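Thread amino acids onto this structure.
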């Protein structure tokens, strides 16, 4: 898997104080409702045994094997001030308006509002 971090997203990610061994976990699940969609969550965590680790521009991304089934080979992470993060591929947008939220000390969670 390849993750391309756009410049604006990289600027925002550089503001996060990652602790040793932490990275961004990408959880993706195919949702079969009246439309076809992939539900994505991003959160700061440490690597787990079943994760594939992808390092881009010094940022570790942890993707569980099950999530790899729901994602394309290459995704883009972008950021727009006032709108938040956007996750997309060359074919589709998976989510936008992701904001950063402090969940507990030392932990940041991305969520879509």
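Threaded sequence (113 positions):
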């Amino acid at each position: 898997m390849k993750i391309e971090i756009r410049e604006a997203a990289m600027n925002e990610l550089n503001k996060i104080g990652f602790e040793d061994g932490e990275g961004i976990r990408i959880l993706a699940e195919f949702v079969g409702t009246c439309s076809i969609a992939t539900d994505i969550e991003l959160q700061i965590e440490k690597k787990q045994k079943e994760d594939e680790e992808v390092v881009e521009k010094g940022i570790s991304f942890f993707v569980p094997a099950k999530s790899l089934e729901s994602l394309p080979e290459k995704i883009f992470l972008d950021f727009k001030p006032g709108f938040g993060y956007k996750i997309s591929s060359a074919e589709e947008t998976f989510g936008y308006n992701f904001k950063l939220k402090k969940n507990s000390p030392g932990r940041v969670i991305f969520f879509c509002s």
